[in-house]
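Entry 14. Two folds queued back to back today. First construct below, sequence then structure tokens.
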Amino acid sequence: MGEKRCEEHCLCREMEQLLDEQQRLAFEGFRFVCEKIGYDTIPFVLSNGKCAFEVFGRTKKGLFFTTQVFRLENLDTRHGCATLSLLLPVDMDGHPVEFCNDVFSLVKTDNCIMVDLTCFCSIKPLSPKLVNRELPIIEPKC
């Protein structure tokens, strides 16, 4: 089987741009700019054209979850693949939820997967403000 060329696939170019913007957002690679704005992730959903890509992950407490939301960690343009970390969708109480329901925050995890980018045809970026968004403190009513 021949070597895949990332530049032949539109999604690879999109992922290259996403990684570049994510690095600039996090001020990575700057020599003189060191101020952090609090965002270092552009979360996104991948699709094969029919449905969103979904995987299982595991929290530090050992609970399993499913997610459709990822962070691009590394891109291998030579082989057309990417390393993605899983983002855990949670509600206002910090409990895992399905992505389509009541997502308040996307929590970074240590779970990573490698994907073949030729299997996907679209990417939908989400707001960086969702990542590790602080949960509200709800005072009990007296």
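Second construct, same run, same settings:
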Amino acid sequence: MPEKPRRAPTGAAVLQPQITAAVTEAVLDELAASGYVRLSMEAVAKRAGVGKSALYRRWPSKQDMVIAVLAEFSIELAEFPDTGALRTDLVAALRVLHAWLTHPRMARILPDITAEAGRNPVLADAVRATIGEPRRALGTELLHRAIERDELPADTDIELALDLIAGPMFWRLNVRHAEEGPDYLDRLADHMLRALNAR
């Protein structure tokens, strides 16, 4: 007996892109307004104008929802262009990092999610795996390109170099809350080149 063709899912089973987009925006807005601990599925659903079931069809928990949305948002803001030279690559990467750290939403979300990750090892692991590691992978590509072009020594410590690229700006903006100045990114790139023993 021939097998009956499967019916395409209808109604509630279909994950409509416009609803996913509305929920994503609502998650980011709620995180920025309330922080991770106070964020609730109810508040996100209300802000998005959907029922809670629309959220649970996409993610099994609040943490899964937050991490998925933040990962997509963060990686979109992490494209490092290949300019053909280390210095201009670094300046471009620093501009991308600056745009991420100073984004109106992320400037409020990142310090909060970082603090909560310090208290919640499961959240910390999720943030590291879905946001930190993909962004560091892009930085690793930048550094490997420079090594291949003989602009960096072959024995460059990639892990330390990645910390050097991300750390100073995060410290300045999110810990010291200091002004950068118009030439901050260029000066920072030049300091990094010296620290990395660039040729």
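Quick look at the second one. Residues 161 and 167 are 10 Å apart (CA to CA). Residues 1-13 have pLDDT under 50 and may be disordered.
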